[in-house]
Predict the 3D structure of the following.
Amino acid sequence: PYLQDLGVTVVEWMPVFQFDPQEGNYWGYMPLSFFAPHNGYAMSSEDSAGEPHREFRDLVKAFHSAGIEVVLDVVYNHTCEGDQRGPIYSFKGVDNSTYYLISNRPDARYENFAGVGNTLHCANRQVRQLVLDSLRHWVRETRVDGFRFDLASVFSRNDDVSINFDDPQLFGDIIADPELAKVRLIAEPWDAETYPLGRK
């Protein structure tokens, strides 16, 4: 509805990133990989290397042929690794303090502004680079027309978890990127702690 007034036909996808196979649902809000379409959504068999990517590219191309833009719902505020009880798939095993906001509470080692156990450390340069690389990947490889960012206020969290109202770096990095500045960018302006609707 936010683009219909501009005379643009848009389809907004639910998240398509590969998500936790143990999660038990098909919403896709527990991302495992920011670079791969979820294998279970593909028509091809699981052992067909590259087929989910090819199918997704073909899908976007078909929408474009019909005059429809594709905006992806993307989840860069947390991962499927959960809190200290969750599985270890990647970032936990590499470097917790780089990829996640760590709390000083012994009973809850991860900050939880996404409501699912962890929060990506978007103030960290490596994490920002990861997000930018993923966004560029989807633009270059699949030709999507834009992104809708789930719980985007997480992007403005500082190292001490306060909110940077003046100059959140990830927002600036996205807008300054020549490829990403050309696509549609829609941000959900809250997280599990900063939900502003209905407040005075």
About this structure: Residues 71 and 146 are 5 Å apart (CA to CA). Residues 125-142 form the longest helix (18 residues). The mean pLDDT is 88.
